[in-house]
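Researcher: Next sequence.
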Amino acid sequence: MPSILDKPYFRDEAAAYAKLESIVWPNGPVCVHCGETNRIGLLKGTATRPGVYKCYRCRKQFRVTVGTVFEASHIALRHWLQAVFLMVSSKKGVSSNQIHRTMGITLKSAWFMTHRIREAMKQPGWPTGGKLGGSGMVVEADETFVGGKAANRAYGPIPLKQAVFALVERNGGVRSFHVPDVTAANLVPIIARHAHVDSRFMTDEANTYSRTGRWFRDQQTVNHAAKEYVRDDAYTNTLEGYFSILKRGIYGIYQHVSEAHLNRYLAEFDIRHTNRIKTGSDDMARMDRALAGIVDKRLTYRGTDRNRATAPHA
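Model: Next structure:
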């Protein structure tokens, strides 16, 4: 069986652009300057870079990477696609150090490269997926904390833990959020926005969820404090499994995730879980899903504090 990395778009630059164009422009090329779709031609001169089009309406040139996380990158697009595939196919993630060694690029470039890809994996507003759950479906809610342990600290202050709240549809997608505190004021608006009221809602015994009981068709709780974890089909074990993979990835692969970038790492774990093989998606389908999110998400080294690269952690 041939290696997946032997596919043409992982080895040839023109094939890589054709692959990306098939995802970003499913109905054919679109001028990024004026929106023209008809009077466009692919430039084929020997001195022309791969994937360059010319619009004969506004007379400007463009490529599919304009306005995406790949814009103005000196890294070959085929290497970008290899990195995307490695990230979506590695269950617990792949570190920037590994990308640095595998691709033969600097660690700084690898770190910024992986953060660009994670930005593409974000699902702002989940416009295509709607709310999780629905009639006859089950949605679980739970929270966890990620960060160092005081017992592992030889000296210095106790490291702060970051709170992560998540919703998962059984046999479906997951959406996780970095929240400042696990309080009803922070969690209830997220639940209202992302969980369908016709769902059966499963939580633990935390008082945080007491206000949501009247919203859903049915809400069941399990009392973890009393060592009750399953009662018929009432449990939050699906989320517990997701949190287990999340923590193993953060502690075992990345080792340290800063608070400023935690949401990007959560987006990476979300897309892998939501598009896992169990739901009918394979590694290539996950790659296509990640590439579909690259538009209008360009990041630069300079700019706002939210987007500025600070130091390569992992």
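Model: The CA atoms of residues 147 and 161 lie 4 Å apart. The mean pLDDT is 87.
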